[in-house]
Amino acid sequence: MLVQVRDNNVDQALRVLKKKMQREGVFREMKLRRHFEKPSEKRVRESSEAVRRARKLLRKRLDRDGY
Question: How confident is the model at residue 25 (pLDDT cuts 50, 70, 90)?
Fold first, then answer.
């Protein structure tokens, strides 16, 4: 990941870097890899995330359609 520092403004470059890392999911990945996750726990987590995403998408569709 590459961030350019302009006018020696490191603070702004750091904020941009953190935002990019957040968008890419780097922090989530680091948090998940801190401890070993059993394959069964991984399946449960991924399926619950999928359900959460589907509900969010449905909610957005209903809000957009005006129901």
Answer: very high
Q: How far apart are CA 62 and CA 32, in angstroms?
A: 32
**Is the Cβ–Cβ distance between 15 and 8 less than 8 Å?**
no
Closest CA to 21 of 46, 45, 49, 2: 2
- Got the DSSP string for 20-57? HHHHHTHHHHHHHHTS---HHHHHHHHHHHHHHHHHHH
pLDDT of residue 64: 87
Cβ proximity of 33 and 50 under 8 Å: no
CA nearest to 24, candidates 52, 1, 5: 1
